C-alpha cells in the first residue's frame, strides 16, 4: 500500500492548529507563537488542504472547531506537547520563575483557604508577581488572559489542562435553633417539608442528590431563599433560616464551633473536586508550573479536614 511522504511542515501546522484551537483566535495564537497572523493562517490552511478537510470555522469575531477539527485536536495537542518537551532543554526552562501571573479563583474558598498557600508561594518565588481576581462566575480562561484559574467542580474542555489538588465533600447543615424549631431530618425525603437554602449559581438547584440504599436518590427541595452566593447561604443557615447543602470547606469552622450542626451524615450527597486549570498543555511556563506544584503540595492534606 502506497503511503504519502512525511512533510515536516505537517508538524508545524498541527502545532499552530492546536494553538489556534486553544486560543479560539488566529490573532492570539499568532501572538503566543511569535508569528504573524497571516503566516499562522496560511500554515493551518495548508494543513487543511493536505488533510482534505476543513478544521475551523472562521468568522470576524471568533474561531470554532468543525467536526473534523474536534476529532483531530487531541492528536495535535499531543504533537504540540511533544514539541514543547523538545524545547524544554533550553536555558529558559531552567531559569527561576519570574514575571507576572494572573490568577482567577472563587471568592469564599480563596478568602478562607488560599491566603496562606499564596503567601508562602510569593515568599518562595520573589521574582514572581501575582495578580489575583476573585469571582464565582465561570470565566473564559483564554479570552480573559488568565494564566491559572482555580475551579470547584468538574471541568470539561479538551483545550484546557486540568490538575486536581484536592477533593471536598458536600454536606447538609442547619443551626441548632432551626433544628429545635423544625426537627432534624432523619432521611433525605424529609427535606421536602423543610426550608432548604438553595445555591443557584449553576441553575435553579431544585433537586438535591443523595446516596440511599446503595443508589442515587434525587429529592425535590424548596424554601423561601435561594442565592448565587454560598457564603451568604451559610450565614443564613447560621441565623436559623433553613438547611444548607454546601462544601465542607465552607461550613467546617461553623460546625466545629457549634453554630451549625451536620444532618443526614449517613447519606453522602456528592464530592466537589478542587482543580487548577490552564491552557498551556503538559509543559506550562515555569511560573505556572511552580504555582500548580505549590497548590498540589499545599493541599496534599486538605486543611479543612474530614466532615464530622
Task: Outline the low-pLDDT stretches.
Answer: 1-6
N-to-C span: 66 Å
Strand content: 15-25%
Overall tally of structural domains? 2
Helix and strand topology:
Blueprint: H1 8-23, H2 26-33, H3 37-51, E1 56-58, E2 63-65, H4 67-87, H5 91-94, E3 99-105, H6 107-124, E4 128-134, E5 148-152, E6 161-174, H7 176-182, E7 196-199, E8 207-212, E9 215-220, E10 226-227, H8 230-238, E11 243-247, H9 248-257, E12 261-263, E13 271-278, H10 286-298
Parallel strand pairs: 3-4, 3-5, 7-10, 7-11
Antiparallel strand pairs: 1-2, 5-13, 6-11, 6-12, 6-13, 8-9
Helix pairs in contact: 1-2, 1-3, 1-4, 2-3
Characterization of the model:
This protein is an alpha/beta fold and 308 residues long. The chain folds into two domains: 8-87, Winged helix-like DNA-binding domain superfamily/Winged helix DNA-binding domain (Arc Repressor Mutant, subunit A, Orthogonal Bundle); 97-308, D-Maltodextrin-Binding Protein, domain 2, CATH 3.40.190.290. Helix content is 39%, strand content 24%. It has ten helices and 13 strands. The longest helix has 21 residues, at 67-87.
Amino acid at each position: 500500500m502506497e503511503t504519502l511522504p512525511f512533510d515536516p511542515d505537517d508538524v508545524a501546522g498541527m502545532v499552530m492548529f492546536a494553538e489556534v484551537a486553544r486560543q479560539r483566535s488566529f490573532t492570539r495564537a499568532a501572538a503566543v507563537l511569535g508569528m504573524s497572523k497571516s503566516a499562522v493562517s496560511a500554515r493551518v490552511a495548508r494543513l487543511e488542504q493536505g488533510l482534505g478537510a476543513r478544521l475551523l470555522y472562521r468568522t470576524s469575531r471568533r474561531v470554532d472547531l468543525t467536526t473534523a477539527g474536534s476529532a483531530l485536536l487531541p492528536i495535535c495537542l499531543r504533537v504540540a506537547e511533544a514539541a514543547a518537551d523538545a524545547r524544554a532543554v533550553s536555558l529558559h526552562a531552567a531559569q527561576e520563575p519570574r514575571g507576572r501571573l494572573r490568577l482567577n479563583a472563587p471568592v469564599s474558598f480563596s478568602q478562607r483557604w488560599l491566603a496562606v498557600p499564596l503567601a508562602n508561594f510569593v515568599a518562595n518565588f520573589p521574582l514572581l508577581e501575582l495578580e489575583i481576581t476573585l469571582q464565582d462566575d465561570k470565566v473564559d480562561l483564554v479570552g480573559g488572559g488568565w494564566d491559572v484559574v482555580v475551579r470547584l467542580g468538574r471541568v470539561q474542555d479538551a483545550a484546557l489542562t486540568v490538575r486536581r489538588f484536592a477533593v471536598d465533600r458536600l454536606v447538609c447543615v442547619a443551626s441548632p435553633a432551626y433544628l429545635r424549631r423544625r426537627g432534624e431530618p432523619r432521611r433525605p425525603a424529609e427535606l421536602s417539608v423543610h426550608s432548604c437554602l438553595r445555591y443557584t449559581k449553576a441553575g435553579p438547584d431544585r433537586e438535591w442528590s443523595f446516596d440511599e440504599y446503595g443508589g442515587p436518590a434525587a429529592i425535590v427541595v424548596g424554601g423561601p431563599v435561594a442565592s448565587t452566593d454560598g457564603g451568604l447561604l451559610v450565614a443564613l443557615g447560621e441565623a436559623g433560616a433553613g438547611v444548607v447543602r454546601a462544601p465542607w470547606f465552607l461550613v467546617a469552622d461553623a460546625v466545629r464551633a457549634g453554630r451549625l450542626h451536620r444532618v443526614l451524615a449517613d447519606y453522602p450527597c456528592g464530592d466537589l473536586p478542587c482543580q487548577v486549570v490552564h491552557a498551556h498543555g503538559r509543559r506550562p511556563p515555569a511560573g505556572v508550573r511552580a504555582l500548580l506544584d505549590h497548590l498540589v503540595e499545599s493541599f496534599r492534606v486538605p486543611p479543612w479536614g474530614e466532615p464530622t
